[in-house]
Specification:
The complex is a heterotrimer of chains A (about 250), B (about 325) and C (about 270).
Chain A lengths: L2 H4 E12 L7 E12 L3 E5 L6 H9 L5 E6 L2 E2 L7 E4 L12 H11 L5 H14 L15 H14 L4 E5 L7 H17 L3 E5 L3 H7 L2 E6 L3 E7 L13 H12 L2
Parallel strand pairs in A: 3-8, 3-9, 6-7, 7-8
Antiparallel strand pairs in A: 1-2, 1-4, 4-5, 9-10
Helix pairs in contact in A: 3-4, 3-5, 4-5
Chain B lengths: L1 H31 L10 E7 L6 H8 L2 H10 L3 E7 L3 H10 L4 E5 H10 L3 E9 L2 E5 L7 H4 L6 E3 L5 H12 L11 E3 L2 H9 L5 E5 L2 H6 L5 E3 L2 H4 L7 E6 H6 L1 H20 L1 H12 L3 H10 L1 E2 L6 H10 L10 H4 L8
Parallel strand pairs in B: 1-2, 1-3, 6-7, 6-8
Antiparallel strand pairs in B: 3-10, 4-10, 4-11, 5-8, 5-9
Helix pairs in contact in B: 2-12, 2-13, 3-12, 12-13, 13-14
Chain C lengths: L1 H30 L6 H4 L3 H13 L7 H32 L1 H14 L4 H12 L4 H24 L3 H9 L4 H12 L1 H25 L1 E2 L5 H10 L3 H32 L6
Helix pairs in contact in C: 3-12, 4-5, 4-7, 4-10, 4-11, 5-7, 6-7, 7-10, 8-9, 10-11, 10-12, 11-12
Chain lengths: ~250, ~325, ~270
């Protein structure tokens, strides 16, 4: 496979200005270029306000921007199910639908009507996030961690090529967070899917990512390297300390 | 916990008592009004009237302070008269029975209803008579026969109003059931009814002066079965009622009220042009129109065919109980039949 | 358990309140503190009770109150359905077109201020003297508060639901149907409550002013009883109106609330 064919997502000269032509005008992103390989797990670190969330939202199609976003070489401007987003907000599930319906509704919207298939896919993804048997609950009856699991299951059920995750675990307590990191790591190795994962947490980035990246103001990429530490990564793994050091210094320079 | 809930309940009851007591106060205060005689003392008189030409003498009484003058002449005391404009006889009936009004002016229909229902008032004077008429915009409608059993709609001011009763009278005179047209009626205020007739939304309109004069001038409308013959301008239309309490407890004030009405009626009959100048403002007409309408009306303190009408109302179930005699309806100073 | 206790407490408190009000009514009626005619204005409870039965047995002009209620309810239902459908349709259009939204918002603000009864003369000239006039007034009473609530509800839909919807491929009308509508349910339910109360009141006041004798409704009945000074019958009819209102509130609106926003944990 050539490098070009292996590249699933390409961002070219992407710029984004907030409050254009006003006093508060701010370039959030300036000429960002990025390419992501198929089945890569790219973790993006960056200080608050560096534009990483905006970059993800541009890729997802929620924002207007200059430049282009290509998926498999095709330009994308609108949201689409080839790039599904998992938000940080626990409220991303529809409160008026049960867990099961929350997972099935996107499938129905996208033309899957067969009852048996819907059921089978639901069971499959719920098993992946370890929520089997919780189909009938409404979101308000779930804990934050469970809601995020459902959100991941919902994204997986759509079988997207890219899953975009914007600090999905940031609002969870440390224990739940650790648990979900492990689940996601397992899922990411099992699934044929590319992940773009934003986080504040260097440890999280190193544990999950096959590639880690640090963004600075304006979306400038200041550090970008393959994570070659053998999985599963723990702080005791060989090379962990060095990569952590490099990320840390890039972040707080 | 238990104690707390009891306290809450008590508070609840208290608040509801206060609520009702508050509502009751209005009645209490006004009970003072119009009571207590004692010459020379300041008294209050609360009167209600309605809108329109038929009430013209009241504009003069109000403007020239006739009640105040008559009372001062007779007793040397002062009276404050509160004039309240109300929109229906039923409202005035409620006001008088609640004690917040001492008297008022209304159509004979609600007045007879009020007297027979025991609101606690009687008729103390006649005020005016007007012309009434039944107009139609349909050439094919010539008599009641064309209306009975048809889907033609007849607009009039209210079900049970004097216009409705006059229609019943006319039907009876024509040998029909007085209620034969009840299901054809539509209740609409006079101007709305006129607009509906002109635009063809109803086929008939039974109305009174001045609307009837305006409708008679329009070429595409014609009059059915002369209602004027059955109940004309010489017959009682608007009367004054006064509470029995006012009559019994403050005869001097009662007399001043009667005298003032008489004086106003005389004034309007003797010098209609001057009267029109005063009342045109209240009625919103030009002075010429007002004068023309006044001249087409009849103002008199003497009732006409009042008892006949009341008996008809009782007999044909417009009211529940029939008055026994003319004296049941009016105070003893009233003349007429 | 605690919930049950609270419910019982509420029932007891309400019962005591109602009994207290009735007692005060009876005292006012019987004691004559409102003047010698107080029985005329405040008929004692037994008279109202008797009138209540009489209303349904003999009624007015030989027609039972049931018929009047039936006439009113038919017009009301017609107006309610029309008003609610219109409110949804127009609010939905406003979400799809910015220009339509701007205009419709202005229209709501203006029309919501107009008392339906004040429109009667105009409506009669346009529609003629038909029961349809009453339907029009009911639509007028429901449409604007309902549309206002639906629009406010759409505006208050959290951004995250909209993005989650777009994320799974919803666009324009499917987004409206799949996200905006269910997310605004609590607003819609409160719109229904306001709309229903306005419609019920609007219907009766319209009927009191504009009485079509060929299709007589509750409003006409009340007005007639008032004109004839049959106050006991009038109060009895008011009680009927209250009962119907409560039946709709607890029999229709509360269950709707229970199977939607309450079940979804969007409201307590």
């Amino acid at each position: 496979m050539t490098e070009k064919e292996n590249c699933i997502l390409e961002v070219r000269n992407l710029s984004k200005v907030f409050d254009a032509d006003t006093e508060r005008e701010k370039d959030v992103l300036r000429n960002v270029n990025l390419s992501v390989a198929r089945n890569e797990f790219l973790c993006m670190l960056g200080p608050s306000g560096c534009g990483k969330t905006t970059l993800l939202r541009c890729i997802a199609g929620f924002e207007s921007y200059e430049g282009s976003v290509l998926v498999n070489g095709m330009e994308r401007k609108q949201p689409g199910i080839d790039r599904v987003m998992v938000f940080q907000d626990f409220n991303q599930l529809f409160p008026w639908k049960t867990v099961e319906k929350n997972i099935q509704y996107p499938l129905k919207v996208n033309g899957i009507r067969d009852k048996a298939e819907l059921k089978q896919r639901t069971e499959e993804v719920l098993a992946k996030v370890k929520l089997s048997g919780q189909e009938k609950y409404y979101p308000y009856q779930l804990s934050g961690g469970m809601k995020q699991r459902v959100a991941i299951a919902k994204a997986l059920a759509l079988k997207p090529e890219i899953i975009l995750m914007d600090e999905p675990f940031a609002a969870l307590d440390a224990m739940t967070r650790r648990e979900l990191q492990e689940e996601l790591l397992r899922i990411s190795t099992e699934e044929k899917c590319t992940f773009l994962f934003i986080t504040h947490n260097i440890q999280e980035a190193i544990v999950l990512g096959t590639r880690v990246m640090v963004l600075a103001e304006g979306g400038r990429i200041v550090e970008d390297e393959k994570n070659v530490i053998a999985r599963p990564v723990t702080p005791a793994s060989e090379g962990y300390g060095e990569i952590w050091e490099r990320m840390h210094s890039a972040l707080y320079k | 916990m238990k104690k707390k809930s009891i306290i809450k309940l008590v508070a609840l009851c208290m608040s509801s008592v206060l609520l009702l007591a508050g509502c009751g106060n209005g009645g209490q205060d006004s009970k003072e009004a119009g009571g207590k005689e004692a010459a020379g003392q300041e008294v209050t008189l609360n009167l209600a009237y309605q809108y329109g030409l038929a009430y013209a003498p009241l504009g003069i009484m109000k403007e020239q302070k006739l009640i105040e003058k008559a009372y001062e002449e007779a007793t040397g005391g002062k009276v404050t008269v509160n004039w309240n404009q109300m929109s229906s006889g039923a409202d005035i009936n409620t006001g008088i029975s609640g004690g917040s009004l001492d008297g008022g002016f209304m159509g004979v229909g609600p007045a007879v209803t009020g007297v027979t229902k025991g609101v606690g008032y009687k008729i103390f004077t006649n005020l005016s008579g007007q012309e009434h008429g039944l107009m139609t915009n349909d050439e094919n409608i010539k008599s009641f026969d064309d209306l009975i059993g048809s889907s033609n709609q007849i607009a009039l001011v209210n079900i049970g109003s004097i216009q409705h009763i006059i229609l019943g009278l006319a039907l009876e005179k024509a040998g029909k059931d007085p209620h034969a047209l009840d299901s054809n009626l539509v209740a609409m205020a006079h101007p709305d009814g006129m607009a509906a007739l002109e635009s063809g939304n109803v086929s008939c309109h039974l109305t009174s002066s001045p609307y009837i004069f305006q409708e008679r001038e329009e070429s595409n409308l014609h009059e059915i079965n002369d209602i004027t013959e059955v109940w004309g301008k010489d017959d009682s239309f608007i009367v004054g009622v006064a509470s029995v309490k006012l009559h019994d407890e403050n005869p001097q004030l009662y007399q001043a009220l009667c005298d003032a009405v008489k004086e106003a009626v005389d004034f309007i009959n003797d010098s209609p042009a001057e009267a029109a100048k005063i009342t045109c403002e209240f009625d919103g007409n030009s002075e010429e129109d007002e004068l023309a309408y006044i001249e087409k009306s009849k103002y008199s303190v003497e009732t006409s065919r009042l008892f006949e009408l009341a008996s008809f109302m009782g007999r044909t179930e417009f009211i529940d109980s029939t008055p026994e005699s003319y004296e049941d309806l009016v105070f003893d100073n009233v003349t007429g039949d | 358990m605690d919930e049950k206790k609270r419910q019982i407490q509420a029932i007891v408190a309400r019962t005591i309140f109602i009994v207290a009000v009735l007692c005060i009514w009876e005292i006012v009626a019987k004691s004559g503190i409102m003047g010698s005619n107080s029985e005329l204005i405040f008929p004692p409870l037994e008279a109202i009770g008797a009138a209540f039965i009489r209303n349904f047995q003999t009624g007015m002009a030989g027609v039972s109150l049931w018929v009047y209620i039936g006439n009113s309810m038919a017009l009301l239902l017609e107006g309610l359905v029309l008003g609610i459908v219109l409110a949804f349709a127009l609010s939905g259009l406003s979400m799809l077109s910015r220009i339509f939204y701007d205009i419709f918002n202005l229209v709501i603000s203006i029309c919501d201020l107009l008392p339906g009864v004040a429109l009667l003369p105009v409506v009669i000239i346009i529609f003629g003297v038909k029961p349809g006039v009453i339907v029009f007034l009911v639509v007028h009473a429901v449409l604007w508060p309902m549309a206002r609530n639906v629009l406010d509800g759409f505006m208050a839909v959290p951004r995250i639901y909209v993005e989650a919807g777009m994320n799974i491929g919803l666009k324009k009308s499917s987004l409206l149907w799949g996200v905006y509508l269910p997310a605004a349910t609590s607003y819609i339910v409160s719109g229904l409550k306001v709309g229903w109360a306005r419609a019920w009141r609007g219907l009766i006041s319209a009927e009191m002013i504009f009485g079509v004798a060929s299709c007589p409704g509750i409003g006409l009945f009340i007005n007639q009883m008032r004109t004839n000074m049959n106050n006991a019958e009038m109060y009895a009819t008011l009680i009927v109106i209250i009962i119907i209102g409560l039946v709709v509130q607890y029999g229709v609106l509360s269950p709707i609330e229970k199977c939607t926003v309450k079940k979804w944990g969007m409201s307590r």
